[in-house]
């Protein structure tokens, strides 16, 4: 009987010590700061990370581990993830289904140092998102502090902190933790193309109403733009190749002057390379629309 009372008290203490969390926001944060890269989207773990769902450690232990982890996992301080953020992530993890196969649970015991580069393709593929004559683009998290290695000048677009962009000189690497834990790295290659002469009769894509110029140098122009629901952009001409990093979940409907339309869906962190010499207008078809757009000179 005494044992049952102690157990009940422990359960009650744990319940009271766990603040209410928003599982939907927790899912967003889990992706934004890159947790999914080692623990997968369901928190079921893999070669680079332990299973943390649907039964994570007690909340206080969970917070302590996130703040001072073992192995290759980077620490996430209050500035990056507040306690409420962690409560939201915790709620998301507890909402996940059980994994189909046994994967080791996260415990307070020492764990061996893991090499994220050895993770399965479902976690960290080790492959660039884009690799062509103009750029190599990587999705990078603070959980993988040693890779990839950029070779040229580079642009680092924060996914965790929308609107933050850092430019680094040849071969230098940005501090991913300082960018919130996840960023898209755009490694600029030596192939350069001057802007096309605009003979379309329409204005250039940028600048446009509502856009914010983040920075410009001899290689790039970086813009931060949000699409407004039911408000098409002006018909415009792209005189430069662009790398687009989406910072929201939604879909854009693109329409050319002859009336041909296509709809493209995207989520936070989706990155696309679009060639120049295009004319179209865009309208937000669903969800939210925000992106950092890097024009290549």
Kindly report the oligomeric state of this protein. Answer: single chain
| Rounded radius of gyration (Å) | 22 Å
Named CATH architecture of the largest domain: Orthogonal Bundle
Q: Report the biggest beta sheet as strand number plus sense, adding barrel if it closes.
A: 5 strands, antiparallel
Write the element-wise H/E pattern from the N-terminal end onward: HHHHHEEEEEEEEEEEEEE
Average pLDDT over all residues: 84
Fraction in helix: 10-25%
- How large is the share of residues in beta strands? 25-35%
Strand order of the largest sheet: 1-2-5-3-4
| CATH fold naming of the largest domain | Cytochrome Bc1 Complex, Chain D, domain 2
Number of strands: 14
CATH superfamily descriptor of the largest domain? Cytochrome c-like domain
Structure classification: alpha+beta
The geometry reads as globular
Defining key terms:
globular; alpha+beta; 14 strands; Jelly Rolls; five-stranded antiparallel β-sheet; 297 residues; disordered N terminus; 27% strand; Cytochrome Bc1 Complex, Chain D, domain 2
Would you give an account of this structure?
The chain is α+β, with helices and mostly antiparallel strands. It has three domains: 13-109, Cytochrome c-like domain (Cytochrome Bc1 Complex, Chain D, domain 2, Orthogonal Bundle); 118-188, no CATH class; 212-296, Jelly Rolls (Sandwich), CATH 2.60.120. Helices cover 17% and strands 27% of the residues. It has helices spanning 2-17, 23-32, 36-39, 59-67, 83-94; strands spanning 130-131, 135-141, 154-158, 165-168, 182-188, 212-216, 220-227, 236-238, 241-246, 250-255, 261-266, 271-274, 278-287, 289-296. The model is unreliable at 1-16 and 107-125 (pLDDT under 50).
